[in-house]
Amino acid sequence: MLVNLAAVALCNFHLFAAWFFDDSAVGWDPISLWKQMGILAKVVVIVLFIMSGWSIGVMIDRWMAFNAARNQSRSFAPAVAGALREAAAWVGCDNVAVLEVEPAELAGPVRVAVG
Fold it and tell me: N or C: which end of the chain has fewer CB within 10 A?
């Protein structure tokens, strides 16, 4: 059996050598690659481009939503601080302590009544 495999390999070696040492240059630019693709490969590339565009759109949407939420939080913190001061005055609490808040820029406007 080993002899048969060796005979087949040696008989077809010229085909492998012709394929391996083929001098026809394969173009690696996008146009040459597109021309060499079959229909299934072209469909896959088109689907991947659509998915890539969709992914970029989702990233932009998430970035815009995050920025809007951050701006809303920055405007909400001073309003909460004022309401807490009013609640502390209504309860009759004179001691108001600063709560440890992250990020540090919100530590100033957020205060808690300590009774």
Answer: N
* Cβ atoms 114, 87 nearer than 8 A: no
Q: Where are the domains of the chain?
A: 29-113
Q: Which residues, in sequence order, are CB contacts of 108 under 8 Å at separation 6+?
A: 98
Determine contact, residues 112/84, Cβ cutoff 8 Å: yes
Evaluate whether 36 touches 26 at the Cβ level (below 8 Å): yes
Residue at token pair 């004179």: 94
Average pLDDT of the chain, as a whole number: 76
Per-residue pLDDT, averaged over 23-41, amounts to 86
Helix or strand (DSSP H, E) at 113: strand 111-113
